[in-house]
Design brief:
Length: 197
């Protein structure tokens, strides 16, 4: 098992205590204000010129206090402003659209359904897609989910890079959150984030 640490930020809040319950409303509006719909539309334009991982990485750069006091679409707007500047769109220029990776049927990788795997705890400069509460945990591969580019590379460059197998891994809630947890957690994790236990 690798014993190095990933870089954590305020955005990696999964499994943390003290933030209260997540409110769920069955009839909630898609957008709470007209400006949120406009931010969503702007994202559709800008994301043709970069990767979703680059967008997520920029959101993660928001100062912690601002991140915690901002709404979902305020975080999006903050990142979109930086993307627009990054691609010269504020000066009337613009980058060429990014070629999206073709959907490739899942192919056998290092692991197969039923295998036990441990989530690596590795140093990832920049964007990390593995929540801290899963690091070093052992789970079971449920399926090979897809083949997709490594997120940390596409976050750094804004272009999609080499493909890797992505697995749906199931974890016991008890292992993650203690004996009172009576559920399982499924996560799609890249092959580079997994190792044999």
């Amino acid at each position: 098992m690798r014993d190095t640490l990933s870089v954590d930020g305020v955005h990696d809040m999964g499994g943390m205590h003290g933030f209260g319950p997540v409110p769920v409303t069955d009839d909630e509006a898609v957008f709470h204000a007209p400006w949120e719909g406009r931010v969503w539309a702007m994202a559709g334009v800008l994301l043709r010129r970069t990767t979703i991982d680059r967008f997520r990485y920029l959101i993660e750069q928001m100062p912690p206090v601002q991140y915690l006091t901002s709404s979902y679409y305020e975080r999006w707007l903050w990142a979109l402003e930086r993307l627009a500047a990054e691609h010269g769109m504020l000066e009337g220029r613009g980058a060429d659209p990014v070629t999206r990776p073709a959907l490739v049927p899942p192919t056998p990788g290092r692991f197969a359904p039923g295998d036990q795997v441990r989530v690596a705890n590795r140093v990832v400069p920049g964007h990390c897609r593995v929540p801290r509460y899963l690091r070093r945990q052992v789970g079971r591969v449920e399926r090979v989910a897809c083949v997709w580019p490594r997120p940390e590379e596409s976050a750094a460059t804004g272009r999609y890079g080499p493909l890797e197998s992505v697995y749906t891994v199931v974890f016991s809630g008890r292992d993650l959150f203690g004996p009172s947890a009576d559920h399982t957690v499924s996560a799609d994790l890249g092959e580079s984030d997994l190792e044999a236990p």
